[in-house]
Amino acid sequence: MKPFLLILFCSFSCFFADAKHITGGEMIYDYLGPGSTPNSRSYRITLRLFRDENCFNCAGMPPTVTIGVFNNDNSQLVTNMNLVLSSSGQLPLNTLPSCITNPPTLTYTVGLYIFEIELPYNATGYTAAYQTCCRIDDIANIPNSIGATYTTLIPGSTSLASEIDSSPRFAQGISIVCYNKPFTLDFSATDPDDNVLEYSLCDAYS
């Protein structure tokens, strides 16, 4: 039993060492126009994953990901898309607060995974989702072994005034905050369809 436990322990150690790199992510969709079949719509879906380049002994940006697309009318899986990394780039660093006197060197990369899909127009739309096994270390209230899910909701006919609809684009940048000091985070966004954007608060997750 001892050799088995040792091998099992080593396997888990390697798994978590290689997985701790994704600091966050988001998914967006773009309406491309009518599909090639009647009553269908064409969309481009983009997954953005963010990686801390200063992380020690961490895996690189995932070379491939799998994104599931689900029909919200019946919760059925429409397809699984296996994607390779399309491109990557560096995220900008926002203006440093005055409380920082010796700023650290921070480098964050965003990786893009992109695909196009045609979907029949339905009542409640579709959800595209990506799941990852782990998070970065040292989050105070979430163990690294608990994963994360990034999704985007493509609305259906019951909630859209027009079939032409794409995701808002939120501001991207790295913000540094000082312990026990006031700070501001930029949640501004623009909408490619010139829709009015509204913000509201909801109940927190457990």
Shape: globular
Strand order of the largest sheet: 1-2-6-5
Helix content: under 10%
Task: Summarize the helix and strand pattern as letters.
Answer: HEEEEEEEEEE
The low-pLDDT segments are 1-19
In whole angstroms, the N-to-C terminal distance is 38 Å
Protein described:
There is one protein chain. The chain is mainly beta and 206 residues long. It is built from one helix and ten strands, in the order αββββββββββ. The strands form three sheets. Strands 1-2-6-5 form a four-stranded antiparallel β-sheet, with no helix packed on it. A four-stranded antiparallel β-sheet has the order 4-3-7-8, with no helix packed on it. The chain has a two-stranded antiparallel ribbon with strand order 9-10. The protein is globular. The N terminus is likely disordered.
Could you outline the blueprint of secondary structure elements for this entry?
Elements: H1 2-19, E1 22-34, E2 40-52, E3 64-71, E4 76-84, E5 87-90, E6 108-120, E7 126-132, E8 148-154, E9 169-170, E10 189-190
Summarize the structure.
With 206 residues, this protein is mainly beta.
